[in-house]
User: What shape does this take?
Amino acid sequence: MGFSTDIVLPASLSPVWPDVCVRCGVPRPGDHINLSVSKDHPLLPFPLATGRVERAPVCNHCAGPLRFERPARFWLFAAGLTAGLMLGYWLASSGAVPFRRATKWMPIVCGLGGALPGVIYNIFFPIAIEAELKGDTVCYEFARADIAAEFKRLNTGPSSGSGAA
Assistant: This one.
């Protein structure tokens, strides 16, 4: 992710979570979200293969929005792509494009233009917490660097094994 802070830990390690909300940083949160640790595709709102599920701490205020954040981002991307493709097909079929060679590229160009806001939003405003299985390691991606630093401190101590960021 573009502006996230990544912490890489061995997949065999069961991580210790800091006692703060992973989204807003409130101490002693009262809820959790289920974080799927699996091989993901960044554009899909669901994992491609099931892996383990971890419980990331969140406060009651952030729990609801975090559960729907990834599907909402997917649908933003999909809606922009669909609207762009439809606009491109309409422009190509209506004859509004002055060059005949440009008509076959119009749906692709408009589709990419429609999807671009969703991609840019995902880069500049990353999801609060994500985890992706990469071989024998797990990459935890945090939107907040202070929470990522605390997570790293708790999990890369002398008794936790080796982890790197």
Observations:
- Strands lie at 5-10, 31-37, 52-58, 129-134, 137-142.
- Helices lie at 60-94, 100-103, 106-124, 145-155.
- The first strand starts at residue 5 and ends at 10.
- The chain has four helices and five strands.
